[in-house]
Specification:
Largest sheet of chain A: none
Order of helices and strands of chain A: HHHHHHHHHHHH
Structural class of chain A: mainly alpha
Number of helices of chain A: 12
Shape of chain A: globular
Helix content of chain A: over 70%
Radius of gyration of chain A: 23 Å
Oligomer: homodimer
């Protein structure tokens, strides 16, 4: 907040191109510094830390922001270049996020299993001392370690690929000169505001199609008993398809929240509300993914009934976490739109400018 | 409310004995009329209706009220007689409630299973189309039908027993003349009020020891992951002991809510708040019992892993219902005590008298 007058002053004369270049330069710089560090981290033995190592985390953060900017303010960039860059960034994101994702999922599922089967006299779980718990734990651990190792191998291969080198070259170009269109010469407010507003319109439209009323009623039971509609084209309704269809709209809103959040960063506005929604939807996603892992593990041939029973409880527990995240979202969401409406009414010249980037100092 | 002035007038001169006798006469009358009807119903083939048949339901209602009155206003009755009567009424209650209880539990569990495994495209469950669902359903159905048949056989035997005839004789005595002590000659307010107040004090004390703060926070996860303390004397903590210890204080509060409710009825006061709490705790009890049934079924030898997995989900689903009931209770409870405090401040002569008993008209 202390540098708001300065950024407001800077913004009054800044062009859209100035603002976007400044952001992209900063993020591409993070990318280029984090890349060798991330390669080194992946090259080392895979750790078991829940948090991804520093280089990978920085790289993921930069990749998400650059991709978000190229999407939201796409009309300002050379189309083909922006489209190709987004495709390559998405490829790297999927590649890099996989292994830390499995590490987090393992921590989540084994933590849940340990809590559910805990035997501490002052707070045991509903599976306290169950014979199937150690077996289910070993099974989940084995399957997730295998998935993590596979992800590690594929990321190791790709980190030496020509594709990654080409992407690094793209990022180097971004530091020196982003391929902007003529439109970027316009005043920041006039050019960026409508594009940022479109990101919020898309978010609001998608969020309003969520079952927000049900989501803000605790214990609606919908996460277990009455999932969202399954597209009729799918034919036979099975649990996997039903759960995926139920989770999909929340996943879409999560992407839109991220885009809106990065757009706010470009506009130098506080993002606390969106940060919180992003965090809640991140939990939603991770619990939903963990539930799938538990359900899949339960289909392993030749497991004991006790193991399968425990996995059923773990699956339901993670779907309950999904419901809890939807409840948290449903309670927060209605407070958000007024704040965003207000944001759009602020005159463009006021409070505009590049966001403070302490990481770059 | 229309006959409030009349009862207030009547109460100003009524003795405690008048009030209690009027209630006991009414309830004993219900008992004696419902008994042959209930015997006839039990003698017929066991039905599958969720609601117990009329005679049995009436009988259970009268048994609960008479037992509650003899407990709460026990100081007004001949001690040995009241104690023996309560023991016999509790015996009949346990006997009669068993079979309808299994019918309700069956409806609850099979209903939950059907919702969880439903494949309707507009709202499938998380077990939609799961191969284990029909097997788990058949297993639960078979085990509950067996339990119900056993309960039916034992109630059939006991309904012809000398013990039941002796209890009916006790109830006949109650219609003509309840064995009251001298204390019952005192004014209704002076004698009954402190005893009713003691019932509320016991309820408040027990309810305040519940984890009400956690219970009014949705998705605290306590119903699955962090149960209440298990008495250390039990030694090894297993899931059954942990769940039973977690549910026990709620079961005690349920009994105390019923007693307070029946005490209010004697005092001619509205019971809507307590009716609602009683209903919520009834759901708590039934979900907890259903969860035990699912967990027990999962220990059946030679079931398939798919069956066990589905039973794990059903178990967690019922524990979630337990949590939902605690949440409902936790939200309602804090509003209650002020109403009860106010009740105790009303002068005894005002608003006292036998409750309107339309069933007796």
């Amino acid at each position: 907040m202390t540098d708001a007058p300065m950024t407001a002053q800077a913004a009054s004369t800044a062009t859209a191109g100035d603002i976007l270049s400044s952001h992209l330069t900063a993020q591409a710089g993070v990318f280029l510094r984090a890349l060798p560090q991330a390669v080194g981290e992946v090259g080392a033995r895979p750790g078991t830390a829940v948090v991804p190592p520093v280089g990978t985390a920085d790289l993921l953060r930069a990749v998400r922001r650059i991709g978000g900017l190229l999407h939201t303010f796409g009309a300002t960039f050379e189309q083909t270049w922006a489209q190709e860059s987004r495709t390559e960034l998405r490829w790297l994101l999927n590649l890099l996020a996989l292994e830390p994702g499995y590490v987090r999922r393992s921590a989540r599922l084994l933590g849940a299993l340990d809590a559910l089967s805990g035997t501490e006299a002052d707070g045991p779980g509903m599976l306290a001392g169950h014979a199937g718990a150690p077996k289910a734990r070993a099974l989940l651990d084995r399957q997730l370690t295998l998935a993590r190792t596979r992800a590690h191998t594929s990321v190791l291969q790709e980190l030496r690929s020509a594709r990654l080198h080409a992407l690094a070259d793209r990022m180097t170009l971004l530091v020196s000169e982003a391929p902007l269109l003529e439109a970027a010469d316009g005043r920041a407010g006039a050019v960026l505001l409508p594009q940022a507003a479109a990101a919020f319109t898309a978010l609001t439209a998608s969020a309003q199609q969520l079952p927000l009323q049900r989501a803000s009623t605790p214990y609606g039971g919908d996460g277990l008993r009455r999932l969202g509609s399954v597209p009729p084209a799918r034919g036979v309704v099975d649990a996997d398809a039903a759960l995926a269809a139920d989770d999909a709209p929340w996943g879409r809103v999560r992407i839109l929240v991220k885009r809106a959040r990065y757009a706010l960063e470009v506009c130098g506005r506080p993002t606390a509300e969106l940060d919180e929604l992003d965090e809640v939807l991140g939990r939603h996603q991770e619990a939903a993914d963990a539930a799938v892992t538990a359900a899949t593990a339960a289909r392993t041939p030749r497991i004991t009934p006790a193991t399968a029973y425990v996995l059923g409880v773990v699956h339901a527990d993670q779907r309950l976490e999904v419901e809890a995240a939807r409840y948290a979202f449903g309670r927060r969401w209605p407070e958000l739109p007024p704040g965003l409406d207000g944001w759009l009414e602020i005159p463009p010249a006021e409070g505009w400018g590049p966001s403070p980037a302490p990481r770059m100092a």
